[in-house]
Amino acid sequence: MTMRVKEVADLIGISTRTLHHYDQIGLLSPQKTTSAGYRLYSEENLKTLQQILFFKELGFPLKEIKEIIFSPSFNQQEALLLQLKMLVEKRNNIDKMIKTVDKTIKHMSGEIKMTNEEKFEGINFSHKAYEQEARKRWGNQSVEHLNEKIKIMSKAEQNSLSKRWVTIFKKLALFCDYSAESQDVQAIIKEWYDFLNENFKNYSLDEFYGLGLLYMEDERFTKNIEQYGAGLTRLMSEAMKVFVDNQK
Amino acid sequence: MTMRVKEVADLIGISTRTLHHYDQIGLLSPQKTTSAGYRLYSEENLKTLQQILFFKELGFPLKEIKEIIFSPSFNQQEALLLQLKMLVEKRNNIDKMIKTVDKTIKHMSGEIKMTNEEKFEGINFSHKAYEQEARKRWGNQSVEHLNEKIKIMSKAEQNSLSKRWVTIFKKLALFCDYSAESQDVQAIIKEWYDFLNENFKNYSLDEFYGLGLLYMEDERFTKNIEQYGAGLTRLMSEAMKVFVDNQK
DNA sequence: TATAAGGTATTACGCTGCGTTAAAGTCAAT
DNA sequence: ATTGACTTTAACGCAGCGTAATACCTTATA
């Protein structure tokens, strides 16, 4: 059951040149060659080739693959386990990317279809029981004022406003794994603070601090904001606290 | 909110050289440059960069990415949808690989740990109700004879036997998407036929044909053999039919 | 048995996507 | 004004093959 280059190539789905190359660099030499110099690959060779392609798929350079495969401690079982682990990691990575892309798409089409009301969903703290708590703790000024403003604003304004804060969140999401104290994060928080002051009402530092706490506790808010990045709510709240502390 | 090369590089996780390169080939040029020639990247640039890296991750060459991105019909939304689709495909691919590796591992460790009895599970047609059906249709000769042989064989023999047929399955699995009539598949089926004849009993062509049908219907068998490749059972049965037809 | 078709080997140059110096200018802080 | 961290352009290098070009091998068919 020996195969020649093209048979192997066609079977596995690579080029003959690749096999030649692998032979040339000593990565995979055929078990036998005919007197005419034809390469004859064995079943064993095929197995090795599979291993090589697995590692390649995982992004290993051929040099390392060679070392791995020719290592005296190389062990099919272990190699497979390693591959499994890396494949799973790779899949997790792709899952993350899928989620990101998916959310982005949803949000993009969402931005188009969303009504003005919906557009502020998760940020509009007006209804339900939570409102009560909010009033208790921070007075009803900020919440009520916010709602008032939103209702009054023209559609056009809402649109551009919506875009502006989405932009801020997206920007912040880029620093998801930065610390709340970092310059970059703080700069964005300042933007957020200014944005709120410009568009809704003048927040005292204490009110702003309270807002940060609110964010953490309101599901409607966290759901919305976590779209832009896991842990964004926490980062935002913390950063808002840091911001207030720094201003004082 | 403009960023210099290293900021962008560190943020995104690539090298400054890469950004230089992208600028050089006109794939991504910074929105502005200072009088000193410093590259200043905008938010918009970052978005584009993300798109570029997405496509790159999906294996597109930079030239094509450039065409895509600069195409007048380029549309973020569409691009994202495309990316989503390709990411999902890639994940499916990886899932397949994971399953393959996983099964291989299970089987390898299985081969070590399995008892002699278990080793033949899924191929040993002896117990339960199914046996009855088998007898009805193909007489009890083949099934009983097989079981007899298995019970009599020494451990060592079982071991080597097990390995031999696993090898045959694995080999066949390589041709999972070939037609049952193909030379390669038929060659392996012949191996299988010879193997059975050598080790268990002489099968008439009709018995061998019947065996192929049995395979399709016995869950214990299909479960076992499908480990080596999806659709392997069907392929094997069909190929056995073809084999018998060709011999007549 | 000769001839054509299709595989194969070797050699060698080309190409992509950067890594990696190297030499020199910029910027901010001390 | 000097350091140190960053920036620029330019140039060479390198992996992992693709792509000829040229010559040889094998097999089927006439």
Automatic annotation (TrEMBL), chains A, B:
InterPro entries: DNA-bd_dom_put_sf, MerR-type_HTH_dom, MerR_fam, TipA-like_antibiotic-bd, TipAS_dom. Residues 2-71 form the HTH merR-type domain. It holds the Pfam family TipAS. PROSITE patterns: HTH_MERR_2. Keywords: Activator, DNA-binding, Transcription, Transcription regulation. This is MerR family transcriptional regulator. It comes from Oceanobacillus neutriphilus. The lineage of its organism: Bacteria, Bacillati, Bacillota, Bacilli, Bacillales.
